[in-house]
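Propose amino acids for all 224 sites.
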């Protein structure tokens, strides 16, 4: 069985969302991008004050609603039903983008087609089946947030690495990615390229270098 499908080398999407949630600090203002990143809201530690922002005009977004308690007028930017926490605020789309562009978000979590070793992000395409057909607010988030976390599978369905030397998809932002969370490992973007911060399951820095075809630094702190 290949590493791409071997369950001993991968964690689930829910586990990955929980891993990202554990890295979000107390008091942070956070935007969760469309798709898988929205799962992070369900794993934020109870009692931790994290203020979630959604670009369609809500600050203080809560987790997904329980079945039967959905408010059809309360949605995030991906049109998924959400909840609003006590003290939540609603505002105009333009004000929401002013928050994003003005550097008022501490963290954003985005999906990706590709991330380059220099931190370039590509997460939209005009040609991929089912892809978002325009860059949308992702470019504002990628440049405006103080830290940009990417949540994605390490490999495509056909086995190509999403971590690349240079992106071939249209760019969302240049040199903007701080950290990449994948189902195989967590990678930091450094001035010297990707560094493996944490490897999951049976993955090693060497096996991850083979999968990605890149030279990877070891930032795990574990003995060789």
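Proposal:
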């Amino acid at each position: 069985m290949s590493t791409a499908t071997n369950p001993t080398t991968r964690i689930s999407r829910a586990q990955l969302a929980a891993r990202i949630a554990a890295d979000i600090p107390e008091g942070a203002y956070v935007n969760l991008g469309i798709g898988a990143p929205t799962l992070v809201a369900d794993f934020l530690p109870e009692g931790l004050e994290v203020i979630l922002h959604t670009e369609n005009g809500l600050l203080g977004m809560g987790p997904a609603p329980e079945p039967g308690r959905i408010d059809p007028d309360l949605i995030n930017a991906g049109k998924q039903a959400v909840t609003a926490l006590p003290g939540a605020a609603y505002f105009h789309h333009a004000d929401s983008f002013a928050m994003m562009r003005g550097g008022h978000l501490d963290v954003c979590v985005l999906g990706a087609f590709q991330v380059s070793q220099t931190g370039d992000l590509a997460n939209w395409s005009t040609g991929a089946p089912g892809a978002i057909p325009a860059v949308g607010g992702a470019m504002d988030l990628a440049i405006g947030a103080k830290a940009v976390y990417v949540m994605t599978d390490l490999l495509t369905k056909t086995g190509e690495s999403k971590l690349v030397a240079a992106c071939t998809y249209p760019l969302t932002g240049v040199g903007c990615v701080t950290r990449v969370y994948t189902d195989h490992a967590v990678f930091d973007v450094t001035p010297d390229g990707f560094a493996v911060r944490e490897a999951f399951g049976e993955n090693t820095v060497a096996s991850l270098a083979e999968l990605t075809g890149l030279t990877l630094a070891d930032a795990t702190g574990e003995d060789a």
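Helices lie at 13-21, 93-101, 138-144, 205-212. The two ends are 26 Å apart (CA to CA).
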